[in-house]
Every structure is written in C-alpha cells, then in structure tokens.
Amino acid sequence: MIRVMTIEDYDEVFTLWNSIQGFAIRSIDDSREGVARFLRRNPTTSCVYIKDGKIVGAILCGHDGRQGSFYHVCVDKDYRRHHIGHKMVDFCIEALKKEYISKVSLNAFVINEAGNAFWTKMGWKIREDLNEYDYIINMNNRNVVIGDKEIGKERNAS
Ligand SMILES: CC(C)(COP(=O)(O)OP(=O)(O)OC[C@H]1O[C@@H](n2cnc3c(N)ncnc32)[C@H](O)[C@@H]1OP(=O)(O)O)[C@@H](O)C(=O)NCCC(=O)NCCS
C-alpha cells in the first residue's frame, strides 16, 4: 500500500534511511524539524510504501513551483526487486502532475550502480550537458554517509 508521507512517519522512515548502505543523511535537512519543514511546504508529494505492517520504502518529493525533486528514494533491502520503487516513483510523479509540475530531477552518486540501473530502467535521462553547482549556505548541515568505512565521521561533501 502506498500513501502520502506525513511527519508521523518520521521515526520509521529515519530508521529505514539509516539501514540503506551509501545513503547520505544531513543533520539539519533530515532531522525531524527539517523533514517537518519540507512536508509543510510539500504536503502531498512524498510517499511511503507499507508492507507486512511496516514502512519498507519511501521517497521525499517536493517542488519549488517549477521543478520537482526526489530525495532519499529507497526500499528496504529485503523488499527490493518487487517493483516497490517503481510504484513509488509513479505515485510521486502523479502527485507532481496534480501540482502542474512538468519536470523532476534527482542526484545519484556515480558509484551507485543499482540506483543508476534503476533510474535508467525507469526511463530517466542522465544530463551530460551540464555541471551541477552547489553553494553551502549552512556549514552546520553535516553529511553522514551510511555504511561508509568511516561511518560516524561527519563529512560536508556529497
Ligand atoms: C534503487 C531502489 C530504490 C530500487 O527499488 P526496487 O523496489 O528494488 O526497484 P524495482 O523493483 O521497482 O525495480 C524496477 C526495475 O529497475 C531495475 N533495477 C532495480 N534494481 C536494480 C538493480 N539492483 N540492478 C539492476 N537493475 C535494477 C530493474 O530493471 C527493475 O525491474 P525488474 O526487477 O523487473 O528487472 C533500491 O534498490 C534501493 O533502495 N537502493 C538503495 C538506495 C538507492 O540507491 N536509491 C537511489 C538513490 S539515487
């Protein structure tokens, strides 16, 4: 069953994120307050997938009035390859369509073979014609990579 994610799902979703090897979790953006702020701005577009009485997949999805963004697309490793990821992506795209959004994008680490294979299969295109620029506004928004050899060591790079 898929439904819209609410802040009441936070603890379960946060536990799921922390089980995903290679995920980069940010101390401010992914805190309860950060996610609550995101969901207040985007109350209808993020989702959770529930199976066996628990949350086994989630997507944080929002838009800025022009373009949609996906963050932390994930499925519990015991539930992968059952098209849960595919169904969640479709759910979020339908929600964005209702908000008159015409395009959605996301970042995938280059070394994430499974993730990149998934997006290619979903029909998403890699942009080869542009460079992505970041500017860090708040250095306190620390980044921790789950399952990194240096897990626990906070990093600002993504
Ligand atoms: C990427 C992820 C969300 C896919 O979820 P999923 O529910 O297993 O994906 P689906 O079952 O919907 O896969 C749809 C199709 O994508 C492709 N695909 C999915 N996982 C794949 C993998 N590991 N290797 C190759 N192709 C893959 C397949 O073609 C699959 O269809 P098929 O099983 O009928 O062949 C999941 O593997 C995951 O949570 N990975 C860790 C987090 C992550 O990397 N997220 C993406 C960040 S950008």
Shape: globular
For the CA atoms, what is the radius of gyration? 15 Å
Q: Looking at the chains present, what oligomeric state does this protein adopt?
A: single chain
H and E order: EHEHEEEHEHE
The average pLDDT score comes to: 92
Number of domains: 1
The tally of helices reads 4
What is the CATH superfamily label? Gcn5-related N-acetyltransferase (GNAT)
Name the poorly predicted regions. Answer: 149-158
DSSP strand tally = 7
Question: Largest sheet, described in full?
Answer: 5 strands, mixed
CATH topology: Aminopeptidase
Which ligands does the model contain, each kind named once?
A: coenzyme A
Strand content bin: 15-25%
In which range does the helix fraction lie?
25-40%
CATH architecture: 3-Layer(aba) Sandwich
**What top-tier CATH class fits best?**
Alpha Beta
List the strand order in the largest sheet. Answer: 1-3-4-5-6
Structural class, from secondary structure content? alpha+beta
Terminal Cα span: 32 Å
Structure description:
By secondary structure, the chain is of the alpha+beta class. It contains 4 helices and 7 strands; from the N terminus they run βαβαβββαβαβ. The chain has helices spanning 10-17, 32-41, 84-98, 113-121, and strands at 2-4, 24-26, 47-51, 54-63, 68-75, 104-105, 143-145. The strands form 2 sheets. The protein has a 5-stranded mixed sheet, with helices on both faces. Strands 2-7 form a two-stranded antiparallel ribbon. Helix 3 links the parallel strand 5 and strand 6 (104-105). The longest helix is centred in the middle third of the chain and has 15 residues, at 84-98. Bound molecules: coenzyme A. Coenzyme A binds next to strand 5, helix 3 and helix 4.
